[in-house]
Each structure stands twice: as structure tokens, then as C-alpha cells.
Amino acid sequence: MEPTLSPDELRAQVGALADALELELRGLGRWSDRTPPPEAFKDMAPFGGRTMGFEQWIQFVLIPRTREAMREDAEFPSHSAVGVYAVRALDGDYDADRLCSLLSDLDWVIERRMAPPPRPRVSAPSAPPASTETSRPDDATRAAVLSGYSQVLPLVHGEDLEQQLQVFALFAQSLSPAMGPELGALLTKAAAATADPTSRARLERAARSIADGGKAAG
Known about the structure:
Helix content: 40-55%
Structural class: mainly alpha
Number of domains: 2
Strand content: under 5%
CATH topology of the largest domain: de novo design (two linked rop proteins)
CATH class of the largest domain: Mainly Alpha
Low-confidence stretches: 121-137
Number of helices: 8
Oligomer: single chain
CATH architecture of the largest domain: Up-down Bundle
CATH superfamily of the largest domain: YqcC-like
Order of helices and strands: HHHHHHHH
Largest sheet: none
């Protein structure tokens, strides 16, 4: 059995998932620039079902509350069923498969206080339709998300690390090649925080590769 996460490791895992959820919603073209009216946040029912769409609830309720809990060093709840609800709410929406997976990972981390289990494969974030190109995040936004995501890399090893590096590489592909050195520095920092020598060497190799214009994974 995998060891339970320390409080710092738990915050890092949850923070990385919140960042990944934002990036996925943006990649799907489902990130809104318009906040629902104040009344939508009153008596909204579980998952916002009474007053807003589920993806709106993820953006305007789940992600902000998660980040607020991290800022205030608050204790996370012992129960989460957002992934279970997502499977029902997004049934038949095949573009949302990865979104459901991320929410299921959040359930796992919150309830078990353990890193999410490895998945058979990692899918790339879906590209938004051409008509929603302006809703995609710029390089600075994506780099900030990857910065948060890199904080989880020192906590995983072996196949889990390879899968996380695949996700990092997929996100990095959406950035300008000029960002390579900055992304390499993120991986170098993650390597320095890694106790396992094999994982540290792997992260250092990934850092050199991506800084030189290559990929973090592969």
C-alpha cells in the first residue's frame, strides 16, 4: 500500500489537480470570462445543480475554494464525491474524459490522503475549437499552471513519475519554444527537492531535454 501523504504533500497534490482542472477547462474552451450573478451562489444545491452548470461550478466554486483552503492552510474535508458526480453529469461527453479523470483523482487524494493511482495512459488536453481561440491561456498562464504542477513531481517515482512527466510534456507543447529554459528550471527545482536518487536523475535529464527544446518525457 502506498504511504499516506504528509500535510505538505497533500496540499501539493490538491494544488496540482486544481491547476490541471483549470488548464483542462481552458483547453476544452469551457473556461468562462463571465462570473455568474451573485444569486447563483445562493442555495445552489450540491455541485451547483440548481443555479449553474457543472463546469461553471468547477470554475467558480470548486477551484477557488480549493485554492482558498491552501492559502489559509485549512484542513481538507474527509469526503469528496465530485468525480462520482462528474461521471453522471458528463456521461456521453467524450471530450470531458480527462476532466472526469482529474476530478476522480481529486476524490482519491481527499478521501485516502494518498497519491492518485497510475492510469493506463495519459491523454492530451483537448484543443479548443478555432472559434474559441481567444479563450485559451497565454504562455504566462500556462507556465504558471506548470509551475504548480511541477511541485508534485518530487512526490512520485517510477512509472508514476513517467506518467506525470508525460502530462508535463503535453502541457509544455502548447507553449512557445522560448519557454524551454524556464520549464527546464522548474524541473531542475523539482529534481533538487527529490530524495530518491533515481527519480532525481530522471528529472535532471528531463530538465536538460526540455531546456534544449526537447520533451520532458520519452
